[in-house]
Write the structure tokens for this entry.
Amino acid sequence: MTTCSPRLLRIGLPLLMLALLGMPAASAEDAESLLTKARNHEFTAGNHAAALRTYRTLLEQKDLPDPIRLQALMGAARCHKARAEMREAERYWLEVQSDDRFTEKQKAKAEQELAAFQAQRDNERQAMDERAEEIERARRESDRQEATRLLDEAEKALDADRVSRAIAFIEQANELGGNIRRINALYRRAVEQRQPESGALIRDLTRFVESGDLDALHELLLQAEELYKIGGAEYRHGNHAKAHDALLKGIDLIDESGFLLSADVGRVNELATLRAKLKYLAEFNRDKAQRKGVTLERPIPEPPAGGQGRTLKSRLFVLLAEAFGGSEDSEQPLKQYVFLSPGAARSNRSLATDQLRGRLSASRAPGGLTRARWAERFVRTQIPAAWTKERILVRSGDVLYVKHTPSVHRQIAAIRDAFEREIRNTQVDVHVFTTTAIGLVKACEALQARAPHQSLGHDVVLPGRLVSECKEYLLGLEGRPVTLLGSARLDLSGTSSVELMITDLTERHPTVAAATRPELSATADAHARFGLWLDLYAEAMPLLASKEDQHAVSCVARVREPVGSTLVPKQNGTEPFTRIPRMLEQRVEADHVVPTVGTLMLAGLRNPFPGTEEVGDQLLILIGARGVKEPDPPRTAPSAIVPADIRRVVLPLGPLATEVLDYVAPEAWPRRHAASAPVSLEIARQARARHLQDLIARGAQLIGPDEPWENAPIDVSGDDVVGSVDPEELAKLTAFLRTLREHEDVVYEIDVRSVVVTRERFAEWIQRAGVRADEQNENQFVLDANATQVIDPLMRAAAGEASLFALDRTINARATQRVGARKLTVETIVRDQQIRTGNGGEGTYTAVPGVAEQGLIVEVRPRLERTPGYRAISVRARAARLQDIERVPFPHPQAEGATIDMPRWYPLVEASGAPTLSDDQSVLLRLPMPGAPTRLIVVKIAARKVR
């Protein structure tokens, strides 16, 4: 018989018991040792980085005892706090509070630590906000002083009878927020000096822009905003009839006020936005009432007809024209001339990127120049006439109002009549060179450029010289004083204006690339890129009395260049400031009649592109225009810009372009733009056209997979695809358009459902059979038919909890159409305060309303079915949650008690995917819930073909 010693029994019996219980023998001991090691790093050595690594290693262990897990979580939070990583520290404290395995006392300790951290953060944020307010207060005071100085200069200019100069000063002061009463008084005086005999009539007409009307408009805004709040409150309490009455009362108040819904007056534009919000909430309230069986008898009124596009300023000029237009017997009658512009600007060719130097990129966009603008500037600069205070030349939209002698009227009428009713297709050639001051002189001598006395010397018309001849001649000069930077050929079809851009990323510029902390922020359009912007207008004037073909040509050339950086306050983040570039901008404008056998030359612009200074510090631009269908004029050198086999095509698109609009959600939501306000139809149409251009160009293989859509040789213009392609590209384009037309009648039913669950519950869902994780996208999971039937009821059960992010919507979508589902909570805030000073010097302040939004936005776009029964869909989900709304005192000595609401959101979360699904399949997207790291937002999307 074998016996065991007492020592072996003391050691073996506990091991046997642990084995029988199925527990690892050394796990608790290892965890204790790791915890001791982490605490030694933290408290003894003060090495928070090493302690944090040890705490994380400890937390990765499975079956960790709760007391040790608690100590590891609290220790990790302390280490992150010591390393000034506040967001990570907050995450660990919140995890302790949300874990049901810990006692209330333990949670209270974590809550106490978190409260102390939040108090510290609030103190730091208050200091940051005070500094930001101080900077903003200084900026406003600087703007006020500058506006006062400009108005003083305007008054001096009026005393010297320099009306145009005075009006320029008044407009600048108005942009800076100067005294509105003084601005109106000086503006009225300027108009009276320009036309003294009609001073009494003009005083009556300018009441439309008097401060009294503006005060009444502001009062109307406050009343309508109050009704919007009342309607929203009644809707939230389920009183749909009372909400309907309040919202429609606000709409009636706006419609009956007599103020026009205009984009030219800022506060009137706010009124139009407020009316759209009232209408949107009224429609939402009506739909909710109908689902509950409540009938709302009165329909929601549409905007008043005729209000759009008739601004306050245009009414003034219309009345002026009616008053003086019929006075033909006068020696200087006042008449109006209509210069209607063609449609929106589109082009089919951008700058040839293979001709650009270095890392420069080329793109194009719709232009902003019009026929009326060209006519105004051409008349003022090119017609030899004196424009004194008794004579008027003013443009409002597409109309010129002119008061001058009959001979000048005859010249302006001849210019107006030189344009045909239907716009001709025009081809514009552009060549951009770099040169030096000496090289510019040599180029002007070689081209025999002579500036007329009306020109500033920056813009010269070279008659009798084709633009291609000028290009080849300059490149052949001895010593190569000029270097070609880039070339373009643009075919303008159905339009006359386009903007060309040769740019590079601001962060690559040497002056800002080496910026120290804080890091450079160049996300805004005005800061993101630098380079050359060319806004071009070109249109044939076939009826102009001339022996040769002529074109009206305008060009606004802008150069933007970084010249260092500056610090500005930052509302969120660990650092109080952010760094943005300081940009230098230079501008040259030209407006001429250019012969087809002729060239417009622009000079005087800096060369903004680093790396090309060795060939020149200035830019030289050549522009030529001619009809697209006209034969090429005789050329001294062949052009290699567009191959000879390129064909101009116009192909109809069909209903997918003319009947379908895409859902457009603002990219800067929720910090800058509201998603509850609907976007304009024009923006939706432009977004749809851009998507179709990208879809068709890639589907027909006209551009590479990674090539930007701007390089596509086609455009979507109205109902058609227009472009210049070779025979092989035309065959591919025709085949893809045939595929697109086969999907015109296809309709999909899009189901969108979202719930909030714990990470543990979601982990259980994705472990079920039929759930396939995407290897490339960790947030995307595809469910087969069986998994969909299992998880769908689980989501319905989880949706019983009231949640900000719970969504259940079904939407119909056409092929390639983007639709959206959203669950938004909108809070009204005081966005700003406005100060008004009365006649007695007393100041009053009124609140400027705004909104703060939170919730979930889901965007879905079904793509074309290349395999029958299966289609790829693009999905994107964004979630935002308000952290708090702080009331900041308004920095004005007379605004005691006034505050501005500063909403602060948790970081925006987003997830996207592009799965391929059948009717029975669906896709899950997971997003971390903002402010709650232990919970997830789960979005399920399914797309079924119903027709």
Summary: The first helix runs from residue 6 to 21.
